[in-house]
Amino acid sequence: MLRITELKLPLDHPENLLKSAITQRLDINAEALKSYTIFRRGYDARKRDNIKLIYTLDVELVNESAVLSRFHDDPHISLTPDTRYQYVAQAPRDPTTRPVVIGFGPCGLFAGLLLAEMGFHPIIIERGKPVRERTKDTFGLWRRREFNPESNVQFGEGGAGTFSDGKLHTQIKDPHHYGRKVLTEFVKAGAPPEILYVSKPHIGTFRLVSMIEEMRGTIEALGGEIRFESRVEDVLIENGAVRGVILANGETIEASHVVIAVGHSARDTFEMLYERGVYVEAKPFSIGFRIEHPQSLIDRCRFGNHAGHPMLGAADYKLVHHCKNGRSVYSFCMCPGGTVVAATSEPGHVVTNGMSQYSRNERNANSGIVVGITPEDYPGHPLAGIDLQRELEKRAFQLGGGTYDAPGQLAGDFLAGRASTKLGSVMPSYTPGVRLCDLSPALPAYAIEAIREALPAFDKLIPGFAMADAVLTGVETRTSSPVRIKRNELYQSLNTRGLYPAGEGAGYAGGIMSAAIDGIKVAEAVALSIAGSNK
Asked: I want to staple 244 with a disulfide (CB 3.0 to 4.6 A). Which of 102, 236, 342, 456 is the partner?
């Protein structure tokens, strides 16, 4: 088959126009086109009055080689790559060791799935609960202020990505098409088939719940074992190599291959690994607030008269501003038609995140407006970034009244440097609730200064972004892991053989797709090691 990229058509084109556009692009008769499939569909909304759909198509022709030879210099016409996943190893008939995967978020899920599919019967350890029980506990905080430190937005089956927008796109390079494997497995588990071809696929929380359960069943059917409510208390390390893990209940599981896929909020695990001498270093992350606007404002700014078009859905945005004080402020984890959610994993802390359902039809748009910081801002030791996160989250808890309400402020008041006392036209979506105040004590002065400079700059790009009634909610501190557990070319810890740092918590991913892809890569490394290909 041949692949055509960057084929642009009007937003409301009839279906039969796609076929004629293919024949015209390839300069062939209609009879020479045997079939076509849509590999990717996006849109170009830079001109709001002339929005275009952009297609990547795989076409089957009568005389493929002749057409390809005529377009051999055209970068938008080529052979269709083979995106089918190829397993790198197969477990021996009687394996003497079972790999252990710690964490059952997107990274641990795909590491476990791939190891199970290759016959290695992984043991997956998850400190939280199965996804449906975990959902009840999460709603306990949101609706009744009842917080469970082992079962919440951060901990439990599915990881933090379960309570998010369910975004399934990433900007990482993917020459081996691991992302296609991820999307294919999601569709098998019940995701809408459109995620295979829309340019910015998403699922939403409620659909993710049943999908994760389906994938768990697949792992178990293939001989994998999942242990919920099992927290890893310690790792056994002898002569620079991992020998197993010790659970909080005292049980020891011997293993020579242990995948650390714990996510960015497993602070006690990072501390334990650091104390055991595993090489850990501080890394940059970002801090800031969530901002909410009417979704209709964002739709009109992005799509003009096409706002609400079913082919476009709820509009998103991506913004960045480089400040006079040397800081960069950018939008993070933008959730169209979504809600701001309570995302703490420790008692006495307030953390915000964003979430959307598949429909993206809530009244508000929200995103993080965050400031990049580096280890120079939190010097001292590799875990100093965690200390800073905790300090800011405790401060937010106090500003919110100590009841898990989040501190909030209207954008107009924030820019004017005065406390907010009443809401305007935008109703905040965060539950349990929002307590209006002055947010300036919630973050370091340099971050407040940077965000105050950025909001008017963003308003020039999206008119209304700095509207007086927009609501800022604090704090956003879990943008990415504050540490990196460094690994070598075999995906093993620099100084601990058999320990495989993986995913977002280890500092190698950001979001569902990149974490899942990293899980596949690490599973391959483990499989090759057990099978004897890596020494």
From this structure: 236
